[in-house]
Amino acid sequence: MSEERPQWVVMEPELSKNEIRKDVAQSAVEVTATTVGQVTMIITGAVRDVAGAVGGLASELFELRAAAKRAEKDHLSE
Questions:
Q1: How far apart are CA 77 and CA 13, in angstroms?
Q2: SS3 per residue for 9-48
Q3: What's the whole-model pTM score?
Q4: Per-residue pLDDT tens for 28-57?
Q5: What residue ranges do the domains of the chain occupy?
């Protein structure tokens, strides 16, 4: 007499077309949100860097202007 062993059947869940579409849409939204976040951070960093550079330029121009005024004043007082 042969011993009968239980056989396990692995059942794969069947996804409906609507479930598949929902999963694809969800993944697309998640990937898009991540990419938008990354691009936003890049743009924010660039704006910050540009603002710093323009601010530095303005400071240099103010210093040059003040130095030019001092030089003119010194020249006129001689």
A1: 94
A2: CCCCCCCCHHHHHHHHHHHHHHHHHHHHHHHHHHHHHHHH
A3: 0.60
A4: 999 999 999 999 999 999 999 999 999 999
A5: 48-78
